[in-house]
Amino acid sequence: MSETRTVRVELGMRGYDIRIGTGLIAEAGAHLAPLAKGRPIVVVTDATVARLPLSALEHSLGQAGIKHKTVTLPRGEGTKDFAHFARLCEEILALGIERQTLLVALGGGVVGDITGFAAACLLRGLAYVQIPTTLLAQVDSSVGGKVGVNLRAGKNLVGAFHQPKLVLCDLDTLATLPLREFRAGLAEVIKYGIIYDAALFARLERDLPKLLQREAKTLEGIVARCCEIKAEVVGYDEREGGLRAILNFGHTIGHALEAISSYGKYLHGEAISIGQVAAAELSAKVFKLPAADVARIRALFEAAGLPTRVDLTPAQRRKLFSAMRLDKKVSGGEIKFVLAERIGKVRFGQRVPEALIQEVI
Amino acid sequence: MSETRTVRVELGMRGYDIRIGTGLIAEAGAHLAPLAKGRPIVVVTDATVARLPLSALEHSLGQAGIKHKTVTLPRGEGTKDFAHFARLCEEILALGIERQTLLVALGGGVVGDITGFAAACLLRGLAYVQIPTTLLAQVDSSVGGKVGVNLRAGKNLVGAFHQPKLVLCDLDTLATLPLREFRAGLAEVIKYGIIYDAALFARLERDLPKLLQREAKTLEGIVARCCEIKAEVVGYDEREGGLRAILNFGHTIGHALEAISSYGKYLHGEAISIGQVAAAELSAKVFKLPAADVARIRALFEAAGLPTRVDLTPAQRRKLFSAMRLDKKVSGGEIKFVLAERIGKVRFGQRVPEALIQEVI
């Protein structure tokens, strides 16, 4: 097999490897064979995934002697709703699956989240593997076992914790990713710097041009570091009893923005870019995050080509705040925030008066 | 509080009590207060539940100072589908729940299964309590954490393992249960005798008239014994890696019968009554279950007023077998059965040639 980096998610019986490298899909059959255990598997993908990765995967499965069937979802965040989820479950069941059937999600975050949730629920739990094909899915959504679908009321309001058996991050898939989507993925990459690793943040400031050119070695190092951070956080706190909440930096406002724009206008990464800059400003007000750090944060998102502000009508603003109150992080009627003390260090569960939130949006 | 029996489900951190007795709903507030932790709770019920238990529960919550909101589902097994599940989730979310919100299921198996699944998925997991109001739900579906909904392809094909925090079996609710439903519950009661406890089976043969008159002391002893058996089995094998499969005695054929009649013609208990008699006949063919035991099994179901045979057209028969192949218990393409060696002792995971199954239906 080709040279790959491996990051282990330490979760005891539910622990698993994330493998990061080039050419991984072309050899996926060899990685999947121990998990398929001689049985036919089901690949779920969507119309966004280029023909190339899917044919490479199918070819590799054939070489490894793994029979498979493929289910293709329509593209886009709209696919992550209940109606599509129900249809996906019916479709997978119609293939004649059993409790030992392995599901494989090939695609971006939407495919991974909905397939993972199907795996969590079908026959009360099937094993599954993530093969994320976007930067955002590779550094974030494919790792950690949070799966689910959106309701009209908000994002991921119905879901489960269901860990995959393996994650294959094939960096080749990033080469053909549309620029807008690649940039959206950078929003999660920058987040890891802010919440956990000041050195990563500085490296991003320095290497951003190389990253935007998608230089293979730079990408590999950055993706692997992000996966390491996520694996470490999830390994401490699988079900978000505490620490894991730091991963939601910028997400309270971000999710609400996505919800009120009906998951259409903003990509997830764009929404949380706006959300993170707002959270940084809140942090300056509440925690004395240095103004210089706020400026560096804003500048890095801007350099990455991401939006950092939003203009809302009074009606949209009201909708935004009521969406925020529906967020999973609400407790005792108060909206809790992750706030930064400095770049590389955040605290979760911070109460913020609504007036302050109004000021920064 | 009134005198109650308590059966403990031993599942470590996820362990919980089943309380069995009369007058439990009227004092539910006191039982629920430690779980509600001062927060408003959500009660889910359906139109089948008599006005009395719901008002008793609401009164008791009021006395205990627990605020609540009630969501009422339409009645019947048809309610346990994806569309109703999605609507229930949206409706509960619209009440402004948080991760600490407690759900309470007041009703029969359908209410318990769909509410439990909503609890498993909403905000990726809420705590919930079962207050089963039918015999079937008290002895079976409310205990053990199997929750889910039906798909067109079959029963409970989408679901989760999500244990309740408490089960309250108020025997008063059984007094007004329609006769047909009470009898359907007896199908699960008899099952415990067949799979686990020959003495229980003999006691049922003896006490059936008192049971059918719903004599309080008899009911209490029988319901408690059934809960004990279920708790013991689930305590050994929460996620059905092995032993728990014995609880599916009669269910492979029973579920398929329900699926092909679109969850309308047969109550669950009626379908598994037919399924258990067929499984007993298969057991006689494959395991040498004594013919006398088969006769006792059939006679007890008949004495309970339950159907023990079904007449199918050739087209229905074909549908039945294809529904059976979709069952969760299928492995390696083979339909696995729970078969009896003698009354009180069964074995799971038994392969049975399809020709033999054809003979007994």
Task: Describe the overall structure.
Two copies of one chain form a homodimer. The first copy, chain A, starts with a strand and ends with a helix. Chain A is 48% helix and 18% strand. The first copy, chain A, is globular, with a radius of gyration of 20 Å. The mean pLDDT of chain A is 93. The first copy, chain A, is α/β, with parallel strands linked by helices. In chain A, helix 5 (135-141) runs parallel beside helix 7, helix 7 packs antiparallel against helix 8 and helix 8 runs antiparallel to helix 9. The first copy, chain A, has 14 helices and eleven strands. The longest helix of chain A is centred in the middle third of the chain and has 21 residues, at 216-236. The first copy, chain A, has a seven-stranded mixed sheet, with helices on both faces. Chain A has a two-stranded antiparallel ribbon with strand order 7-8. A two-stranded antiparallel ribbon of chain A has the order 10-11. Chain A folds into two domains: 5-175, 3-Layer(aba) Sandwich (Rossmann fold), CATH 3.40.50.1970; 179-360, Up-down Bundle (Dehydroquinate synthase-like, alpha domain). The first copy, chain A, has helices spanning 28-36, 51-63, 82-94, 109-121, 135-141, 172-175, 179-196, 198-212, 216-236, 251-260, 268-287, 291-303, 314-325, 354-360, and strands spanning 5-9, 16-21, 41-46, 68-73, 103-107, 128-132, 146-151, 154-161, 166-170, 336-342, 345-351.
